[in-house]
Write a structure and sequence with these properties.
The protein is mainly alpha-helical and about 210 residues long. It contains ten helices and two strands, in the order H-H-H-H-H-H-H-E-E-H-H-H. A two-stranded antiparallel sheet has the order 1-2. It is globular, with a radius of gyration of 18 Å. The structure holds zinc ion.
Length: about 210
Amino acid sequence: MPTRGDRHLRAIQLAKQLAALGARLKTIHLITGMPPCQVQRLFFPDARTIPRGRAPNSVEWYHSANLILRTDACLIGAKYHQLRGQGLNVGEAMVCAYRAYRAVTAPPCRISLDRAFNLVSCIEGIWLARAPVLSVLTCPNCGCEFLAAVGTVAHLGAPCPFCKLLERFHVDPRIQASYPARASIDMSGRQLGILALFHKRCPRAKGDSPAK
Ligand SMILES: [Zn+2]
């Protein structure tokens, strides 16, 4: 059994990682349970470095986002789902999934940690959401995991975001520039397969230099 001290240490370590990834005070507070004033004192001694602006708070964003953003959200959701299945708790799974997402996409980062927090809230029905409103489904067409409204049934002939991405990849330079696939990335096998396919079909994405 972890002691109270163990739990407190884990909360501080998680808060540190979240702060480094750009999380807002409220996000860190909701995930770790640490009071916002304590988070600020420990990780934002200079108040000017506290992330400002309006926090993402609506699941509608996912349904109306463009294809690249929806694919990004699916990469986070799929990795999160996989890590939860491996026994990680919600906070740790979210941080690991977000890091994995940042590793497979070209900078600048399109989805903030607070947006990822919003997505995970919607998947789990915790933190910002009262009940699950997004679920992780497996596409019967391409085999990728993707996010859809709770109650959606995946069926053959209905393309998921990855199906659409593959279809448009060779004609859309924005998509080609958004995913500089690298073999060493720790994403789930199927999603990595899709990104590796991009790599083969897009010689410009070779190497480590991010596409601008
Ligand atoms: Zn698909």
